[in-house]
């Protein structure tokens, strides 16, 4: 389960930014999860709550945006969205010459804080 490591690193960044802006606590965190990141949103939520205990972010609301599995089809010459990350054929022409466009990482999009 790599979600715990992702959450620990995200919390480090969240706390650094919160303290730099004089926060007394973090009330919300918005994460964007790449379609090919192999991150399970329910595991991410569980791990986030776990790593936030006894920190500025304890009790904060986690918002997760899941990116769509988007690829460029060489055959169709257009962007297509895959129904599943495991199906690597163009839904338009069934070609398997796809270039992945979607991200495979996780980004902190926004942090909501309360100031002193």
Shape: elongated
The pLDDT mean sits at 90
Q: SSE order in H/E notation?
A: HEHEEEEE
For the biggest β-sheet, the strand order reads: 2-1-6
Helix content bin: 25-40%
Whole-number radius of gyration?
18 Å
Assign the structural class, choosing from mainly alpha, mainly beta, alpha/beta, alpha+beta, or little secondary structure.
Answer: alpha+beta
Q: Alpha-carbon distance between the termini?
A: 36 Å
Strand proportion, as a percent range, falls in 25-35%
Summarize the biggest pleated sheet.
3 strands, mixed
**Which runs of at least 5 residues are low in confidence (pLDDT < 50)?**
none
Total DSSP E strands:
6
Number of helices: 2
Describe this structure in words.
This protein has 116 residues and is an alpha+beta fold. Helix content is 25%, strand content 33%. The protein is built from 2 helices and 6 strands. The chain has a 3-stranded mixed sheet, with helices on one face. The protein has a 3-stranded antiparallel sheet with strand order 4-3-5, with no helix packed on it. It is elongated, with a radius of gyration of 18 Å. The termini are far apart. The mean pLDDT is 90. Ni(2+) binds at residue 2. Belongs to the HypA/HybF family. This is Hydrogenase maturation factor HypA.
